[in-house]
Design goal:
Blueprint lengths: L4 E2 L9 H9 L3 H9 L4 E2 L15 E3 L2 H5 L44 E5 L2 E6 L15 H8 L8 E2 L8 E7 L2 H13 L4 E9 L8 E10 L6 E5 L8 E2 L16 E12 L3 E8 L6 H7 L22 E7 L5 E3 L28
Parallel strand pairs: 7-14
Antiparallel strand pairs: 1-3, 2-3, 4-5, 5-7, 6-7, 8-13, 8-14, 9-10, 9-11, 9-12, 12-13, 14-15
Length: 356
């Protein structure tokens, strides 16, 4: 009989099926069959696939589950490239998926610019996707899988950044932290994400402006565009205030509500520098909300912005966690697009908290 698996602190809190997928590399259907037929036990007792495991739990599995012998479902080469999903309010587990040895080695993950308990803060460069997609396997999750192969819990991004957006990315190193961050992103309580964006033209408003829109995805995966729906009525109104109503447009039938607060930092006739605080996390949200108002982001060709040698000038500059801990890294934009610390105001209520 195989030695039982022991749940570590980093793995605690996962559903049993997620835990065994990472430990055994078997498909969920096989694991559910093992559990249903009593071949899996937790601390000697019967269990269910979606029971949550705790630190120190002893999980017995059938011998072939770890040896790949008779009775174990095999995983195809195509599946071995799989990397864990990112946090978007869903319950996920880090899986230690290592690229096949026959493939060329991947570059290291983006640099770590901050740390907290159960958390790495990475500085993602523009041009690197967070997840694999159509036409590209190299991404943050694949690099993490290669770098941390064999870890108790594979470091897993807790949110997403567009491929061409640079900036701060939160990566959980334990399941408990991943779940907490996913919940915080889902309810938008205490977790603040701020972006710098250079847009075309003179931004017409002096103070903070909260934008409300209904956004809708169109097109096939890999070729999706997002558009504003509902015209210029209540679904796409703006509010002149520093606050926001996260449910302001939830009653509209079409699209999904998107809200952000925009504060101008520098305004010129040709371009303006904006600080954008997200209140929702929709795909391409900042890019679309600004472009729909006649101010596309410089370098964002998809939504009407002009070409720029530096790429798309959108950068996740500051992240504040629910406990108040804050991380900040300025973009490496040069020449007329350079941004210094003097351009970025302190967050209200947390002066001097920025790092690293």
């Amino acid at each position: 009989m195989a030695e039982p698996l022991v749940v570590t602190a980093a793995e605690a809190g996962q559903k049993l099926v997620q835990y065994l997928q990472r430990r055994c590399g078997a498909p969920q259907s096989a694991i559910q069959r093992w559990v249903r037929t009593g071949q899996v036990r937790i601390n000697g007792g019967r269990c269910k696939p979606f029971d949550r495991v705790a630190e120190g739990d002893m999980v017995r599995v059938p011998p072939f589950a770890l040896s790949g012998g008779e009775g174990a479902d095999t995983v195809t080469d195509g599946a071995s490239r799989h990397t864990p999903g990112t946090g978007s309010g869903k319950d996920m587990a880090g899986k230690s998926a290592v690229p096949p040895q026959s493939l060329p080695p991947l570059p290291p993950p983006p640099p770590t610019v901050g740390r907290a308990e159960g958390l790495l803060v990475l500085l993602k460069p523009a041009g690197l996707a967070v997840q694999p997609g159509t036409g590209h396997d190299d991404c943050v999750t694949a690099r993490l899988a290669a770098r941390y192969a064999g870890a108790d819990f594979l470091p897993t991004p807790a949110h997403r950044l567009d491929r061409d957006t640079s900036g701060l990315l939160l990566v959980a190193t334990s399941y408990a932290r991943l779940r907490a961050l996913s919940d915080a992103f889902a309810v938008r309580e205490g977790l603040v994400k701020e972006y710098l964006a250079w847009v075309t033209g003179r931004w017409p408003h002096d103070g903070a402006l909260t934008l409300h829109d209904q956004l809708e995805k169109q097109g096939t995966p890999g070729h999706q565009r997002v558009r504003r729906v509902g015209g210029n009525g209540a679904a796409s109104r703006v509010a002149m205030s520093g606050g926001h109503d996260s449910h302001a447009a939830d009653g509209d039938a079409a699209g999904r509500h998107a809200a952000c607060t925009v504060t101008p930092l520098r305004r010129g006739d040709a371009a303006s520098l904006l600080l954008v605080r997200l209140h929702t996390g929709r795909t391409h949200q900042i890019r679309v909300q600004l472009a729909e108002r006649g101010h596309p982001i410089v370098g964002d060709r998809k939504y009407g912005g002009p070409a720029c040698a530096l790429g798309m000038l959108l950068h996740a500059v500051r992240l504040t966690l629910p406990d108040g801990e804050q991380f900040m890294v300025l973009p490496d934009w040069t020449d007329r697009w350079a941004v210094g610390a003097e351009h970025l105001p302190d967050m209200q209520g947390s002066p001097g908290a920025s790092r690293p």
